Amino acid sequence: MAEFALRTLQRVNLNRLVPIVGAIAGGVIAAAGVMLSSGDALEALVSDTGIAALIPMAAPPLGATARAILALGAGALVAAILWSLSVSAVRAGWGVRRSTSARGRRADNPPRRRTSRRTAAQADVGS
User: Fold this and answer.
1) What is the pLDDT of the chain when averaged over all its residues?
2) What is the Cβ-side half-sphere exposure of residue 17, based on CA atoms within 13 angstroms?
3) 73 pLDDT more than 90
4) Is 106 helix (H, G, I), strand (E, B) or coil?
């Protein structure tokens, strides 16, 4: 029993990790981009999008807390989009290599059963 549990823990399914790692990486990059952008660019973005009209506390000038909230929001949005796209790609089988047999047929596709078909000439003759 312990041997089975140890083997199960050692085996890692990389297809399940791809969406998580990609989403985290994309979210961190987006958050870093927001944090490293200039204050004037962020203030122009906030005033142009109309966020300040909806949330009066978001009106420029933006402080460190507002920049951190914008970075967190951008990172979460990018992470959610990347995660959903990569999960659907993994479920669709993108990047999964399927082996083929010697006859060129996929290994997971069983051979088709051949059926005998009578031609029109055979049906007319009655054979």
Assistant:
1) 78
2) 4
3) yes
4) strand
For 98, the enclosing helix (H) or strand (E) is none
Q: Tell me the C-alpha to C-alpha distance, in Å, between residue 84 and each of 26, 31, 125.
A: 12, 18, 61
| Contact (Cβ atoms closer than 8 angstroms) between residue 74 and residue 31 | yes
Which of 63, 28, 24 is closest to 43 using CA atoms? 63
Instruction: Provide the percentage of residues in the chain whose pLDDT is more than 70.
Output: 61
Using DSSP's 3-state secondary structure scheme, residue 101 falls into: coil
| CA 50/CA 26 separation, integer angstroms | 26
CB 23 within 8 A of CB 79: yes
Cβ pair 79, 24 in contact under 8 A: yes
